[in-house]
Design a protein that fits this description.
This protein is α+β, with helices and mostly antiparallel strands and about 500 residues long. It contains eight helices and 28 strands. It is elongated and about 75 Å long.
Length: about 500
């Protein structure tokens, strides 16, 4: 029997909308769907009814605002798909944009159990699968929302959209290592560090239990956003506190810079408290802008503070006393970080591009050619006996990951592009470097030299993965991934999610 695409609202009154919404909202949704099918309507009417304003989706930022939907969004999908396929074309673009928005939004809320979450993902997938004939018809007619229908379906099939659930074999076994609002992970000194809403937690990499907790100083309104994917050590924030955790031979430490680059400080634990030591730049005649701290870093028992005028000061990481000779960068340069006795610097060219250079701490001179364009500290690793650098080219959903030979500046392979590439880390399997990349709702594992996958993507996150980190645990490489509400743990080689047993 041929579908009646000219009757997109067949069965609309048979849905128990009153069980999913209040009577007024149910009536408004039905009215809005009828208007969309007949006149094109206004997508805001449907969106406003379906948006879940009763729960905190702060971890899921879509176009700069938290976004999640009520369960009524599930049956709404079938009618939106049919409207997109109706011969008249009325309302088709709006219907497809709403489908894309629902498929790309947060799939859960903090109060849902794991079983409820899996049921929600399965229901959305089943509804979209049932809507495939209508979506295929819309695609045949050349209809599109923000992107073509085929791309929408490919995204669903790949788990990029409506990912959100562990593979069936892991259901009831795998679970998050932590329920944590963090979007930033750091591994240092054998600890897993998570940035929370009100503090930094230095945790055991085995079970995630906190070992040390650093409470953010200053007013709550200036605390860093836990779900942010911005590098806290790179470029000061005008509105919020910047925090940079580290662990060295003296234990955990934190570098902070107040809003607008003011008052860089070193914090060290003393008993149950933390002691702050101001990292003061000497000189009374400095312009106020010259005192502004742009970046901070810690390495090799020293702290580094890069100032707005290009001067990088060095301090003892235990006492905060000045140590070493200051380094003065050339104009239009800024410190990104420190690694292996080298200062990582970004320099803006006359054409407005930003290039990455490295400067020897001992001499203050560049040690290799200009290459790349980044505002993030690169990650160093060794492959085939040669030093490599990996870094991303800025921000946004279309950023790419580059690999560079650190001695020649030559690019290794093609840039790696994965949608919503928010973070990456390097780990080793059998002596060969691999990359773990946070992309969309998955963690991708790639060979660092070839860029080819070393295993299938890791599924389990119900929202976009914001960061990924690696640490050795009991002799095995382990990956940690954060999505702003949970931190999940994986065996890097097999992809087994914690706490399931790793196959022998």
């Amino acid at each position: 029997m041929e579908p009646h695409w000219d009757r997109p609202l067949d069965g609309l009154d048979e849905v128990a909308w009153d069980e999913l919404l209040s009577p007024d909202d149910a009536a408004e949704l039905v009215s809005a769907l009828r208007s969309l099918a007949a006149e094109g309507g206004n997508e805001n009417r449907i969106y406003d009814v379906l948006e879940d304003n009763d729960h905190d989706y702060w971890y899921a930022t879509v176009s700069g605002k938290p976004e999640g939907f009520r369960p009524a969004a599930v049956p709404t999908l079938r009618f939106l798909a049919r409207i997109a396929a109706q011969p008249s074309g009325v309302g088709s673009e709006t219907a497809l944009e709403l489908i894309e928005t629902i498929a790309d939004a947060a799939l859960d809320r903090p109060t849902m159990t794991g079983v409820e979450l899996d049921a929600m993902v399965d229901a959305l997938r089943a509804e979209l699968d049932a809507a495939r004939p209508a979506l295929a018809e819309a695609g045949r007619l050349g209809r599109a929302g923000d992107y073509p229908v085929r791309r929408l379906l490919v995204g669903v099939d790949a788990g990029v959209l409506l990912g959100g659930a562990y593979e069936p074999r892991w259901r009831g076994v795998a679970r998050p290592l932590l329920d944590s609002p963090t979007g930033r992970l750091t591994v240092a000194g054998g600890m897993l560090i998570t940035r929370e809403k009100s503090d930094l937690a230095f945790r055991s990499p085995h079970d995630g239990e906190p070992i040390h907790t650093f409470s953010y100083p200053g007013p709550e309104g200036a605390w860093p956003f836990a779900g942010s994917i911005s590098q806290s050590s790179v470029l000061f924030s005008k509105d919020e506190l910047s925090v940079h955790p580290f662990v060295d031979r003296d234990g955990p430490g934190v570098l902070t810079v107040d809003a607008d680059g003011r008052h860089p400080r070193l914090w060290r634990p003393v008993g149950a408290d933390w002691r702050a030591t101001p990292l003061v730049r000497p000189g009374l005649r400095l312009r106020p802008s010259a005192r502004r701290a742009m970046t901070v870093a810690a390495h090799g028992g020293e702290c580094f503070v890069g100032h707005a005028d290009g001067v990088v000061l060095r301090f003892d990481a235990r006492t905060g006393v000045p140590s070493g000779r200051p380094i003065t960068l050339t104009a239009n340069s800024a410190m990104l970080g420190v690694d292996d006795d080298l200062l990582m610097v970004t320099r803006r060219t006359p054409e407005g591009e930003r290039n990455l250079i490295r400067i020897a701490l001992a001499t203050g001179r560049p040690v290799d050619p200009l290459f790349g364009s980044t505002l993030m500290p690169p990650v160093r690793y060794v492959a085939e006996g040669r030093p490599r650098l990996a870094f991303t080219d800025g921000s946004g959903p279309y950023r790419k990951l580059y690999r560079i030979d650190a001695e020649t500046g030559l690019e290794i392979g093609s840039p790696i592009g994965i949608g919503d590439l928010n973070g990456f880390c390097v780990y080793e399997l059998g002596g060969r470097p691999c990359l773990a990349v946070a992309g969309c709702r998955q963690v991708h594992r790639l060979d660092a030299e070839t860029g080819e996958p070393v295993g299938p993507p890791l599924f389990g996150h119900r929202r976009i993965v914001l960061d990924v980190a690696s640490a050795p645990v009991d002799g095995r490489a382990v990956l940690y991934s954060a999505d702003g509400a949970t931190v999940r743990r994986w065996d890097a080689e097999t992809g087994t999610p914690w706490p399931a047993a790793v196959p022998s």
